[in-house]
Amino acid sequence: MPRPRRLTDEDVLDCSVEVFRQRGYAGASLRDLTQATGLSAASLYNRYGDKDGLFISSVNRYADLGISERLARLEQAADPIAAIRQFFDEIIAMSDDDPHHLGCLLVNSLLDGGAMSAQARSLVHSRLFEVQGFLEVQIARAKKSGALPDSMNPVAMAEYLTATVLSLRVLARIDANPPMLRRIAAQALSALGSEK
C-alpha cells in the first residue's frame, strides 16, 4: 500500500491562505483549517505553534508570491511611471479574475478587526505597505529623470496611490466592476501625467 503523500509547507499554506481569505482571521476555525489542509489539529500546531503562527506563515507566503515577486519584476522597468501603471493594471486584472470576490488577504485582514496578535497585525501592515515603498521609489526615480515636476512629493504621492490601491481592492470585493476600477485608477494616475 503506498504511503500517503506528505504535504509540503507550501501546500499547507496555500490551503490556509484560501481559508483566511474566505473567512478572515477571526472567522477561520481550527476545523476549517484542518479540513482545508488535510492535517490534524495536532499536526498544524506542531508545524506552526498555533492559529496565529499559521496565519503569520500564510501571510508571508501570500505576500511573497503576490506582492514581492510582482514588485521585484516591475522594479526592473526602465520607465518608472510605466511600472506604476502596470502595477495598477495588474491589480485590476486580479480583481476581475476573482470570481468569488475573496479579495486581498492583506487588505481583508487589516479591515477584519479580528483579535489577531499585535505581531500578526504588524506583519500584515508592513507587507501591504511594501507597495507604498515601491511607489515612492518609482516616483522619486521619475522625478529625478525629469518625468515628474520637482514640486511633487514622492512620499505624499505614494501615500495617495497606496490609498487608491486599497480602495480598488475593497471596491472589487464588494462589486468587481472593471470599468469603474479602471476609471478610479486612471483618475489617480492622472497625477503622474498623461499616458504615453
From TrEMBL:
Q: Which domain of life is it from?
A: Bacteria
Q: Which InterPro entries match?
A: Homeodomain-like_sf, HTH_TetR, Tet_transcr_reg_TetR-rel_C_sf, TetR_C
Q: Does the keyword Mitochondrion apply?
A: no
Q: Which UniProt keywords apply?
A: DNA-binding, Transcription, Transcription regulation
What residue stretches are annotated with the HTH tetR-type domain?
Answer: 6-66
- From the UniProt annotation, which stretches of this protein bind DNA? 29-48
Gene3D superfamilies cross-referenced by the UniProt entry:
Homeodomain-like (1.10.10.60), Tetracycline Repressor, domain 2 (1.10.357.10)
- Name the Pfam families on file: TetR_C_13 (PF16925), TetR_N (PF00440)
Q: Does the keyword Iron apply?
A: no
Please report the name of this protein according to its UniProt entry: TetR family transcriptional regulator
Q: Organism, per UniProt?
A: Acidocella aquatica
